[in-house]
């Protein structure tokens, strides 16, 4: 039954689209699997839980030989495995893992009960998980080591063990506990314990075989494969770039000029439109709720739970898979009404439409990456959400109304606000007009000789008033450090990140190809970007379209310039500052240290971290094109983040992203209007902070002489 169930899962997973790139290279993938599985690198991010789970996971594997021994004990109480049965190191390992597994599962059971939804409601990461299935698995894991230890105690009595020795170093107290049993009782006790061990193990396997969607149990088999086939063979999470849309073979990126929506997959409109790796993702979910506990949407009262989304997709995939394997569709004549209702069910739709995923769930995602970062079995939530968005936007034309304006502005004006391209140079004129003017080189055709970096300003940095302050600060600092840089000005267009994260791949490709052509014609090789979204797109997504550049974030470059002594902050800034990690700089690109290094070099600054920071940093709410969509459900994400920032009693909130600067600034202004934040509190980029420390305040003007 178990083998048949495994074969059934494989057949169902194979109903997904091809993903040939997932098979190699072999050795890096194998190394990653071994490191993550044996080292528990993802699990140990939650220390106690990870350590307890390690013992339980490997206790499950290492106690399998005791099952084989139990079969022999049904016929002979003194039976042991050939060769290793009386091998002291083997017996020690069995004793150790039996005890440690029992302690580990006790810890995990206690944690589940302490964090139970009946106590914490939505705050519980187990909200929405299938608790009866979890209890069954926990009961089995408790029972097996208990029976193994009982057998070890009775085996010792049968062998006449009368003291601690190498064979019973950990379990001699159990030998003493059973020492009063007579020979007949001892034989019966071993028979009963061995039989119970076999029966419980068989029942466990039969229950699994009858419940293919029982992720809390199946993940212990599927996780190894899901890790092996993950997006990054080197072991990183599936963050940073989005994968391009592929043709029906899965081998070539989709060419929109030749693509046929009836033949080629435009995102995911039905569950079999996901790749087989996507279906394996859904099958592997262990329902632990780590993703849910970190999701900014879920934590602010919105309907999106990455866990529930994956569980709903899994259940629907397994319900429809038998019909997909048989070639049955909603158009097949003569099918039963129940089957027709199942096969006609839209992947995304409201309750009235009987959708698998509600539109509010789909559009609540900020692409922050917290779910992918936290998932212990490497599920790629953002990729699946993006595939569903792509279908909704490009095929169904179904998306939030504000997104229509965004797409129109990107197509017609090359920026999300629809401003004229000449406005991109306003900040250059402002720099040239200040008391200490800075001249900025604007590229006309090609980069001037000797230019070190192209400064990619970005739409927000060029057009949004608060972000323009950051842009001018960066330009001044680069000028002070003697870094030769230039900007594209009106030739620069949006990188396409908002369009791609929204699901409009066509507009992304249009903008990206235009920018790649401009950059290549200008001879650009090195770019410094002020916006993490631009930094991510230019550095990690443009190579998909032939744009290969060395891209750094301005915080990385400025930190290096400070370290080299080319910028020296001298002016003391006596402020308490808390730093907000931008998701696309931190989680997506692992840039956590440079902004903090800059602040550490500014004299007088006292920094205090928010509770959620670095890998567990909380989103500002702007990613995934949410910057241009109204937030109508639950608490505003930027308000939640500012509440956390206010808990550090800051004089300044610092960040390194123009989107974050706008979102946090709006929330702080709202708090000020309510009298909940001091009027002097402001949000500044780390570059602005560094520039303030670089400049000596002007001396006060001398009083006018009396006549």
Rounded to the nearest angstrom, the distance between the terminal CA atoms is 107 Å
Order of strands, widest sheet = 1-3-2-4-5
Sheet having the most strands: 5 strands, parallel
Total DSSP helices = 29
Task: Give the beta-strand count.
Answer: 9
Helical content band: 40-55%
Low-confidence stretches: none
Query: What integer is the average pLDDT?
Result: 94
Q: Categorize the overall geometry.
A: globular
Whole-number radius of gyration? Answer: 30 Å
Counting helices, strands and paired strands, the structural category is mainly alpha
Strand content: under 5%
Task: Write up this protein.
- The protein has 707 residues and is mainly alpha-helical.
- 50% of the residues lie in helices and 4% in strands.
- A five-stranded parallel beta sheet has the order 1-3-2-4-5. It has a four-stranded parallel beta sheet with strand order 7-6-8-9, sandwiched between helices.
- α28 links the parallel β8 and β9.
- The longest helix has 28 residues.
- The N and C termini lie far apart (107 Å).
- The model has no long low-confidence stretch (mean pLDDT 94).
């Amino acid at each position: 039954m178990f083998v048949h169930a495994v074969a059934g899962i494989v057949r169902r997973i194979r109903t997904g689209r091809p993903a040939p790139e997932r098979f190699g290279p072999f050795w890096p993938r194998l190394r990653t699997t071994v490191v993550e599985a044996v080292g528990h690198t993802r699990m140990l991010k939650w220390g106690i839980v990870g350590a307890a789970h390690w013992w339980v996971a490997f206790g499950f594997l290492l106690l399998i030989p005791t099952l084989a021994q139990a079969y022999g004990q049904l016929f002979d109480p003194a039976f042991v495995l050939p060769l290793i049965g009386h091998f002291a190191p083997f017996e020690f390992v069995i004793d150790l893992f039996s005890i440690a597994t029992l302690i580990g599962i006790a810890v995990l059971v206690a944690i589940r009960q302490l964090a139970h939804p009946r106590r914490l409601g939505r705050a519980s990461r187990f909200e929405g998980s299938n608790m009866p299935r979890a209890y069954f698995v926990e009961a089995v894991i408790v029972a097996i080591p208990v029976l193994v230890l009982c057998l070890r105690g009775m085996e010792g009595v049968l062998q006449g063990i009368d003291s601690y020795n190498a064979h019973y170093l950990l379990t001699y107290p159990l030998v003493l506990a059973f020492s009063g049993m007579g020979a007949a009782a001892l034989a019966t006790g071993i028979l009963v314990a061995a039989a119970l061990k076999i029966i419980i193990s068989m029942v466990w396997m039969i229950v699994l075989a009858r419940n293919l969607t029982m992720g809390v149990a199946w993940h212990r088999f599927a996780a190894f494969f899901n890790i092996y086939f993950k997006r990054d063979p080197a072991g990183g999470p599936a963050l940073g770039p989005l994968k391009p849309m592929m043709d029906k073979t899965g081998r070539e990126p989709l060419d929109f000029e030749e693509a046929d929506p009836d033949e080629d997959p435009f995102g995911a409109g039905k569950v079999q439109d996901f790749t087989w790796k996507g279906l394996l993702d859904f099958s592997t979910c262990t329902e632990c709720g780590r993703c849910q506990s970190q999701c900014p949407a879920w934590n602010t009262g919105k309907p999106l739970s990455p866990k529930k989304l994956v569980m709903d997709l899994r259940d629907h995939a397994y319900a429809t898979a038998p019909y997909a394997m048989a070639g049955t569709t909603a158009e097949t004549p003569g099918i039963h009404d129940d089957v027709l209702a199942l096969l006609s069910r839209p992947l995304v739709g409201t309750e009235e439409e009987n959708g698998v995923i509600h539109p509010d769930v789909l559009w609540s995602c900020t692409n922050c990456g917290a779910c992918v970062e936290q998932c212990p079995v490497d599920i790629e939530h953002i990729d699946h959400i993006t595939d569903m968005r792509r279908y909704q936007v490009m095929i169904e034309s179904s998306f939030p109304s504000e997104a229509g304006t965004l797409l129109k502005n990107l197509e017609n004006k090359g920026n999300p606000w629809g401003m004229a391209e000449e406005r991109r140079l306003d900040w250059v004129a402002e720099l040239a007009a200040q008391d200490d003017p800075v001249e900025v080189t604007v590229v006309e055709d090609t980069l001037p000789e000797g230019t070190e970096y192209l400064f990619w300003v970005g739409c927000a940095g060029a057009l949004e008033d608060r972000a323009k302050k950051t842009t001018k600060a960066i330009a001044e600092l680069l000028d002070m450090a003697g870094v030769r840089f230039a900007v594209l000005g009106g030739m620069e267009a949006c990188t396409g990140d908002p369009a791609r994260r929204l699901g409009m791949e066509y507009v992304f490709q249009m903008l990206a190809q235009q920018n790649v052509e401009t950059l290549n014609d200008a001879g650009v090789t090195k770019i410094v970007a002020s916006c993490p979204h631009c930094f991510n797109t230019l550095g990690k997504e443009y190579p998909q379209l032939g744009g290969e550049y060395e891209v750094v974030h301005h915080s990385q470059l400025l930190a290096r310039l400070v370290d080299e002594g080319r910028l020296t902050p001298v002016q003391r800034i006596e402020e308490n500052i808390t730093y907000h990690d931008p998701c696309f700089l931190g989680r997506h690109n692992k840039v956590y240290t440079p902004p903090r290094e800059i602040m550490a070099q500014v004299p007088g600054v006292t920094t205090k971290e928010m509770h959620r920071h670095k890998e567990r940093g909380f989103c500002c709410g702007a990613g995934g094109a949410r910057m241009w969509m109204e937030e109508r459900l639950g608490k505003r994400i930027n308000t939640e983040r500012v509440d956390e920032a206010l808990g550090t009693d800051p004089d300044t909130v610092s960040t390194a992203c123009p989107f974050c600067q706008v979102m946090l600034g709006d929330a702080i202004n709202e708090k000020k209007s309510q009298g909940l934040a001091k009027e002097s509190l402001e949000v500044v980029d780390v570059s602005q902070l560094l520039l303030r420390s670089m400049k000596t305040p002007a001396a006060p003007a001398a009083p006018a002489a009396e006549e």
